[in-house]
Design goal:
Radius of gyration: 18 Å
Largest sheet: none
Structural class: mainly alpha
Order of helices and strands: HHHHH
Strand content: under 5%
Helix content: 40-55%
Number of helices: 5
């Protein structure tokens, strides 16, 4: 991410009004990403598991979190589950000349 920011700040003019998708160059499922993070940190196994959003949402409300925050988290969970954020882009490579780091590399 620092490389992208540096590239934009070094020459901002050509980027005005553009939208970049700073994603990885391959789509990966959440279980793979979570496992990569925990393996990278030296953990023996990943705690990744799927669960229904509504009971989680209800529990967050019981714990006193603000309704607007809980609604946002639930919406994000549903969007992730629906694959709405699984997109690929070469924008990092285009902007920096380097491919984005994998979860394990990071």
């Amino acid at each position: 991410m620092r490389g992208v920011i540096a590239a934009l700040l070094a020459n901002p003019q050509p980027h005005i009004g553009k939208i970049y998708h700073l994603t990885r160059s391959t789509v990966r499922e959440h279980a793979f990403l979570c496992t990569g993070v925990f393996e990278g940190a030296g953990a023996a196994q990943s705690p990744f598991r799927t669960f229904p959003v509504e009971p989680w949402r209800d529990e967050l409300l019981k714990q006193g979190l603000p309704v607007h925050l809980v609604n946002h988290l639930a919406a994000m969970g549903n969007l992730h589950r629906a694959g709405r954020f699984d997109r690929m882009s070469d924008d990092v490579l285009t902007l920096t000349g380097q491919r984005p780091l994998s979860v394990q590399e990071f």
